[in-house]
Amino acid sequence: MLLPVFEDTPLNDLNSLRLPASAKRYAEIHSAEQLLKLVRRGDLDGQRVVVLGGGSNVVLRGNLEAFVLHIRIPGRALVSELDDAWIVRAGAGENWHEFVRFTLEHGWPGLENLSLIPGTVGAAPIQNIGAYGVELADRFFALEAVDLRSGQIVSLDRETCQFAYRDSLFKQQAAGRFIITAVSFRLPKQWHAVTAYADVANELKALGLSEPTPTQLSDAVIGIRSRKLPDPAVLPNAGSFFKNPVVSAERFAALAEAWPKLPYHPQADGSVKLAAGWLIEQAGWRGRSLGRAAMYEKQALVLVNLGGATGEDVLRLADSVSAAVQEKFGVALEQEPVLL
Fold first, then answer.
1. Count of domains in the chain?
2. 258 and 311 in one domain?
3. Is the pLDDT of residue 3 over 90?
4. DSSP letters of 299-310?
5. Does the structure show a pLDDT above 80 at 88?
6. Residue 232 and residue 225 in contact, taking contact as beta carbons nearer than 8 Å
7. Most exposed residue of 204, 213, 226, 279, measured as fewest CB within 10 angstroms of its CB?
8. Is the pLDDT of residue 142 over 80?
């Protein structure tokens, strides 16, 4: 059966910022086999290929002169049980949060701190998503992907994926080469709650939970995120718009002297991670708009579409916010969403 391919397809409802755009060619991919057929027939040859998952980490500047592949590959299963861990696999098109809850419902903890992060399982390794002291890389086992260069399905382990803070092989030297079809996670049997972040600790204290279960910790994270972050279905947004900047210990010392209330998180290599949302708020951009785009009033790190914003509106606001933070603190911000 031939895979349906559509021309000039609107993408407005397929990106969480609800920015207006269309794809020159568009197809939904429901299996790795469908994707392989496209590659091996040469359907993608000579074309710009754009891969779309949940659309929660992209900024669409405008219409895409590209073949957009919307990855909808399903599947969730325990594939192996080791002495110290469960290996759980999910199709790239699975909703990330629903997958997290699926693992908890089956007694396989480890992903609870990553609850309610928008997007799909297949997009998660690209960004190396993280929240409240846990990154995807901490629980990653392997992934399967179609290599557009060879036309084969390959398996990539943790080392090969070269994970870093909100970064991976797929955003660097291998950008555009692989299309992820499934991801497997190593979830520990000897589980312990990661509660070092103040927001999490305070939430658990308010709930009277000194030793939370994995599901209770997930519920706490959901509560925190629900209060801080707008629902994209109600107020279009792409979640955290900027990465938390990392500075040297020397630079941090100078900043902390000038700004004693500056939130920070020491890193293993001696550098210090700063809170981008705090920097943006102090620079005067919390709740402020530029045209139809704005920084969210409850969380300055989140950029929202007030209705009718375009990709160019979003980028103008992002540039203005970055410039304000640079001028006030001498710290450069880097945006998280991918510009298409």
1. 4
2. yes
3. no
4. -TTEEEE-SS--
5. yes
6. no
7. 226
8. yes
Q: What is the pLDDT of residue 183?
A: 98
Residue 268: pLDDT band with limits 50, 70, 90: confident
Q: With contact defined as beta carbons under 8 Å apart, do 56 and 239 qualify? A: yes
Please provide the DSSP assignment of 161-220 as one string.
HT-BTTB-GGGTTTTTTEEEEEEEEEEESS------SHHHHHHHHHHT-SS--HHHHHHH
**Is 1 within the bounds of a domain?**
no
Active-site position among 144, 240, 286, 322: 240
User: Can you give the CATH number for the domain in which 314 is found?
Assistant: 3.90.78.10
Tell me the C-alpha distance between 144 and 163, whole Å: 16
Segments forming the whole domain that contains residue 178: 76-188
Please check whether residue 45 lies inside any domain of the structure: yes
- Judgement on whether residues 162 and 83 belong to the same structural domain of the protein: yes
Choose the catalytic residue: 112, 144, 203, 336.
336
Average pLDDT over residues 243-261: 94
46 falls in which pLDDT band (50, 70, 90)?
A: confident
Q: Which of 89, 101, 166, 225 is catalytic?
A: 166
Mean pLDDT, the chain, integer:
95
Domain identity same for 92 and 178: yes
User: Catalytic: 159?
Assistant: no
Q: Do 83 and 155 belong together in one domain?
A: yes
